[in-house]
Amino acid sequence: MKKTLAFVLLCLMQVAAVSAQESNVVKSTGHIGPYEVTMFIDTDYTKEGDEVGYYYYNDRPNTHFKLVMREYTALNAQGTMLLVLDERSPKGKHTGTFRGNKENRGGGYVGTFTNSKGRKYKFEMMEE
After folding, report:
1. How open is the CA angle 92-43-95, to the nearest 5 degrees?
2. pTM of the prediction?
3. Which of 8, 12, 86, 93 would be 68's cystine partner, CB 3.0–4.6 Å?
């Protein structure tokens, strides 16, 4: 009984630790061109090369594309920041680039997504 209780307490502590680590992860939903997507970005990471999150197409929720920070420019006078994120396939291949502005006040992220073939799509994400 004591071992079971200790195990349950350990599990609860691990869940609390994971929840605290994920507290800076922001969920956004929106579109890349005509495609509906859901994106998760950890707002604590702003260094070039950091893996900052992932996204998936809503019609393929089990296929996650990693997001890697390429460029970050802090807030300007208009309250926006420039973000450039590289898309990586589940196997780690560079397959696209998000280049856009994130508005601090409205929580939106808009710009252009360029896929590996050079085709450009407008994207728009709104934080939930």
Report:
1. 25
2. 0.74
3. 86
